[in-house]
């Protein structure tokens, strides 16, 4: 893969050199194997109109969700029991009863793996599909970063039905207390940054922020925009100015953001909290035609240290007190909100064209232990990237499929090791973007859209 624009090396070739050797060859693309199906014929290709990433910030424990080990020693299996689902090969945590009942609606990949062991750079990896140059660290965002996957998709295929191609809900993600890298347009520029909705529980504030002043009707706003463009011709080409104008001038935006249009009982089912209402907002954005939606189910990886009584602040970074945190704060909300989201999409006929991906930056360590350098009085689990699980549903994903297998303590993949780049390629595959697609930056330098290959076993 080419490096980011600030790095030396790959871009010393002239434009003539690129044309002479060919962009695909220069990027390391190779012809498909003999007899391989073209991307357009592959199962699941282009089935999705939207991708929704539900990001479990902080590192959701695979052992205490999708890959329990009921026969392992207690220091591995933990204090929770597991329950059987309709799939005889899948047991899940006892505190996920509603998700267990929906096991025939989703697939689980239990062999995700990488070697980045800190939140900032691992979140960057998950959200961009690219390793950060400072692996296992908490680096600040930089304008030379690789763009978020939603920004890449906007570069490839800007949305037609909605002013925004990518939207982040309930962010920005904090890791641990600063904004994590990987959420921006990176070296593509701010014009490609996903729209940021933040906390959507105050729907009145969201809608009112888009209302025009009483003395500025839509016609006057258009006249002001046209005048500004004549005075400063660069305004029309300014992506930020264009985005701001489209945001306040598009009635479908105000409609999509108005959660008060939803029945009270449905809002209650999702949960009257940041995570639940963010999932509901994602469903409304799917209906509005937004291709890429990222819901940060937890806006911080670990806010419970400073706000132990505020469940909204909790993240999945449970070094200590893991079982208390999961039982009382994290799992009940997750179970209710995500199950309602899947059911709601299916009831409305949207799941067939929406790929839902529930993922975090990594998993948790197999062995339970008390860490002295962290708050809390009972044991927890450390960071663990070598093996973790993700959930996928919709858009041609085979319901009930299980991809990959972990070893007896969920420490390492036993089969089908799958990298974050492969997961990114799977999401693009569902949207109809082949794994050898590339995009260019402002200087026409080419980059491969994804670093991996689609997880073909999920489809068909």
From TrEMBL:
This is DUF1501 domain-containing protein. InterPro entries: Alkaline_phosphatase_core_sf, DUF1501, TAT_signal. Signal peptide: none annotated. The lineage of its organism: Bacteria, Pseudomonadati, Planctomycetota, Planctomycetia, Gemmatales. Transmembrane segments: none annotated. It holds the Pfam family DUF1501. It comes from the Bacteria. It comes from Gemmata obscuriglobus.
